[in-house]
Amino acid sequence: MTAAPGTARPGGPGDGHPDPAARPGDAADVADPLRRLVAVMDRLRSPGGCPWDAEQTHASLVPYVLEEAYEVAEAVERGDRANLREELGDLLLQVVFHARIAQEDPDDPFDVDDVAADLVAKLVRRHPHVFAGAEVDGSDGVHRQWERIKRVEKQRESVLDGVPLAMGALARAQKIASRAARADLDVPAGATLPVGADAVPAADGAAGTGVGERLLALVQEARRAGLDAEGELRRATAAWEARLRAAEAAGVQQAD
Q: Could you give the CA distance from residue 22 to residue 13 in angstroms, rounded to a whole number?
């Protein structure tokens, strides 16, 4: 993990290190580790705390959120449980950090308890088969029910609404393919559709080479096989990178 300046994780009880947040009478004295984390973050952000933490905004922290999410994924794919525990902590730090910044908003403040309360309410609403006696047909039925409830809650006109444009192209294609399948939308990838007035032509005005359509077809193939296309490509790229590095090292040795 590439730690942000000034946000090193404090030592916990029994680890041989003093708790930097613990002062007599502090909230950091409580036994709940999550509450202690909130107290540590509050101290870092407050006057007399860490200058770097005090300067951060929601926007400035976006790269760290993305980085930590990728590092969690990497730990999972490597089967590295010790590192996974650490990276999950780093991702949790981002949630607590954002919530602490949100407390300072003069017009619409909220804190980590509000975030947790909203999440609990959403989980209960979207799992009526667990909390309200509804019936679903397996995990696929759960997914479809989730999407139906979400669409009503957010008053979306399309099942495809809400897929972030900022997602990587491969991950976004996979998400759209999944949403379309759950909504029983059967439009083959690459099919010719009417072009709307808002359609954006290719930058050079030339016809495409078909590479995008072939990539999209592979995403669909992965989805039908129950595979995560993004993860498959990440793992294949990592294996190729290892071979490239080995060839590079062998070439350097030969040159020497």
A: 11
User: Where do the structural domains in the chain lie, given as residue ranges?
Assistant: 27-109
Rounded CA-CA distance 118/4 in Å is: 28
Contact status, residue 33 vs residue 9, Cβ threshold 8 Å: no
- Residue 216 CA to residue 245 CA, distance in Å, equals 29
Rounded to a whole number of angstroms, the distance between the first and last alpha carbons of the chain is 34
Q: Does CATH place domain 27-109 in 1.10.260.40? A: no
Closest by Cα among 177, 185, 164, 171 to 225: 177
153-203: pLDDT as tens digits: 888 888 788 888 888 888 888 888 888 887 777 776 654 444 443 444 444
The Cβ-side half-sphere exposure at 155, using a 13 Å CA radius, reads 0
Q: For residue range 92-101, list pLDDT tens digits in order.
A: 999 999 999 9
Cα(181)–Cα(109) distance, integer angstroms? 38
Looking at this protein, which amino acid is placed at residue 239? A
Under the phi-then-psi rule, with left for phi > 0, alpha for psi from -120 to 50, and beta for the rest, what region is 26?
beta
In the block, residue with structure tokens 């309360």: 117
pTM comes to: 0.69
Please report, as a single letter, which amino acid is at residue 226. G
Angle 206-212-218 (CA atoms, 0-180°, nearest 5)?
Answer: 160
DSSP, res 27: G
